[in-house]
Amino acid sequence: MVTMMASTARTLSWEERAQRAGVSSARLGQASTVLGHAPDLVDAVLTGKRPLNEVYAEARRRKATAGPEGDAGGRPGASADAAYAGARTP
């Protein structure tokens, strides 16, 4: 989760980001989905109050109900990129 949040270098591939963090690219994808579709639950994962798997399932439910307009084009990390952009804007 932290890797996805801190990963702003767009020159790194998805696999390189995962390798540097010591996690699978699938796990990084789960974190990206959570960041993009359930950002309010990120702190619960980071503090250990809720496991990533559980929060990921909730994020997938939210993504499914959001429909096509909630999709960021299917590119891994695109949802998280959009979430970060919104978070950085005052």
Tell me what the structure shows.
The protein is mainly α. The chain has one domain. The chain contains six helices and no strands. The longest helix is centred in the middle third of the chain and has 15 residues.
Q: What integer is the average pLDDT?
A: 77
What level of helicity do the residues show?
55-70%
Low-confidence runs of at least 5 consecutive residues: 72-76, 81-90
Shape: globular
* Rg estimate, integer Å: 12 Å
Number of helix segments? Answer: 6
- Secondary structure category: mainly alpha
Succession of helices and strands? HHHHHH
Strand coverage percent: under 5%
- Alpha carbon gap, first and last residue: 23 Å
Number of domains: 1
* Tally of DSSP β-strands: 0
Short structural summary:
By secondary structure, the protein is mostly helical. It is built from six helices and no strands.
Main attributes?
90 residues, mainly alpha, 6 helices
Secondary-structure blueprint of this entry?
Layout: H1 2-6, H2 14-21, H3 25-37, H4 42-46, H5 52-66, H6 78-88
Helix pairs in contact: 3-5, 3-6
